[in-house]
């Protein structure tokens, strides 16, 4: 899979821009605040219909303009597919092959991307919400059913929390509707729990050899899914559903008192264990970086296994954050395998040595110039 071209209209600091890309490594060079990250963000948004930098689509629209459009041409194994997203005060419209999609779940997965940025260190040491979002965004690209289930779960959860708040405030005493919402939440939530458990097992298998190699065989990585629902990893859907249902029933009085749903996939976490220690608590910054890098690199092969195609890799100013050893592992892992987009103030010596014929764009004040070979 590769992104052949990108067109931006009134997006961030770009009024009207069209770029053609290499199927190998594409590099955006420039100082800070010139628009490099905006370009990478636009590719991420084209893939996932949302930004990793803001929760407001209005932020994506150029100041004083009423709408913005991102479009691109995606080359896949069997076809070339035009994609486009339009953002306005009326919402967003997603099109595949020029046909508007009624649901974003039908759009996401047309272009699969993996983003690696300096803040991805938060994947290891940040809040549980960061790791839940990581699981949902990455697995959602690979599995349309999982994406649909997470969307449904959020809708039911919002409705259930609102009803629990009414019970808390004694605006109603009827718990029959709570039973209905609980059943809906359990049925969807159990599917999410099983899918996450399966996904993380596969991710661990892919990440372990990468982590061992980067650490010169000195460290062993394990991923542990800490669920607020106590179920056995050998349970089938019926078993997980029963465990979730029993746990909710046990917490009912407390949930009504708190006015909130206290357990379920929205309260779960992922733990990274290196040599039997929680790397977020006991690991050095180097170990945390190695863990984040190994997991990100593992995603590349896992996504290829699950979808049949390699994703597009986005590296937002990460080379300067990695030492020479980690840079080497990263660049060798992607070489001649994955279409890659890199932002950086300048290319490091390691990158210059390892990247074969990159296509280099210079970015200055939102203007793009293509570096020509001497």
From TrEMBL:
Location (main, coarse): cytoplasm
Q: Origin, by domain of life?
A: Bacteria
**Molecular function GO terms recorded:** ATP binding; single-stranded DNA binding
The answer to whether UniProt assigns keyword Translocase to this entry is no
Chain residues that bind ATP: 30-37
Gene Ontology cellular component terms for the protein in this record: cytoplasm
- List localization entries: Cytoplasm
Q: What does this protein do?
A: The RecF protein is involved in DNA metabolism; it is required for DNA replication and normal SOS inducibility. RecF binds preferentially to single-stranded, linear DNA. It also seems to bind ATP.
Q: What name does this protein carry? A: DNA replication and repair protein RecF
> Which taxonomic lineage is given here?
Bacteria, Bacillati, Bacillota, Bacilli, Lactobacillales
Gene name of this polypeptide: recF
């Amino acid at each position: 899979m590769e992104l052949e071209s990108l067109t931006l209209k009134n997006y961030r600091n770009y009024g009207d821009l069209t770029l053609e890309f290499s199927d190998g490594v594409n590099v955006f060079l420039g100082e800070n605040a010139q628009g490099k990250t905006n370009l990478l963000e636009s590719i991420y948004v084209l893939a996932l219909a949302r930004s990793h930098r803001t929760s407001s689509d209005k932020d994506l629209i150029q100041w004083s303009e009423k709408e913005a459009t991102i479009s691109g041409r995606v080359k896949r194994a069997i076809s070339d597919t035009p994609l486009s997203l339009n953002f306005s005060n009326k919402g967003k419209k997603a099109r595949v092959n020029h046909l508007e999609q009624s649901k974003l779940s039908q759009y996401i997965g047309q272009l699969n991307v993996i983003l690696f940025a300096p803040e991805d260190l938060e994947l290891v040491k940040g809040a549980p919400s960061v790791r839940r979002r990581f699981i949902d965004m990455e697995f959602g690209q690979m599995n349309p059913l999982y994406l649909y289930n997470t969307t449904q779960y959020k809708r039911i959860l919002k409705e259930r929390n609102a009803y629990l708040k009414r019970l808390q405030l004694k605006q109603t005493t009827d718990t029959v509707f709570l039973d209905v919402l609980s059943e809906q939440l359990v049925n969807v939530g159990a599917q999410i729990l099983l899918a996450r458990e399966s996904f993380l097992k596969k991710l661990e298998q892919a990440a372990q050899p990468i982590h061992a190699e980067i650490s010169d065989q000195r460290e062993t990585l394990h991923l542990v899914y800490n669920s607020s629902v106590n179920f056995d990893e050998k349970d089938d859907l019926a078993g997980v559903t029963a465990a979730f249902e029993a746990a909710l029933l046990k917490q009912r009085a407390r949930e009504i008192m708190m006015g909130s749903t206290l357990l379920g996939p929205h309260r779960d976490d992922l733990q990274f264990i290196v040599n039997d220690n929680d790397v977020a608590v006991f690991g050095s910054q180097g170990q945390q970086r190695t863990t984040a890098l190994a997991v990100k690199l593992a995603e590349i092969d896992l996504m290829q296994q699950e979808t049949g195609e390699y994703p597009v890799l986005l590296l937002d100013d990460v080379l300067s954050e990695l030492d020479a050893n980690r840079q080497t592992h990263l660049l060798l892992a992607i070489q001649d395998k994955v279409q890659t987009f890199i932002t950086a103030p300048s290319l490091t010596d390691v990158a210059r040595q390892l990247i074969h014929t990159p296509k280099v764009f210079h970015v200055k004040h939102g203007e793009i110039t293509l570096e020509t070979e001497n």
